[in-house]
Here is the input.
Amino acid sequence: MIHDIGRVMTHMKIILKFFKEGYQTPEIARKTDHTEEACDRYIKAYKKVEMLNKTMKNEEIANVLGMGKSLVDENIRILNKE
Here is the structure.
């Protein structure tokens, strides 16, 4: 069972960890007990943040993507752990 902790969801970190390790969406969904659609949403958002991070500040990324700054910040932390 995966629990949410605070404002940032632990399952996002786990899903993105599996993604960065090369797992495909169906396997990530099975391992995390999430739908493939939910996993794909996290992965797509991560890829967008990754791309925009090269030229924009976190606040700008949040505004462009319509995401909360804390979610962008967490994606950046995950990105920087590569």
In short: The first helix runs from residue 10 to 20. The chain has one domain: 10-80.
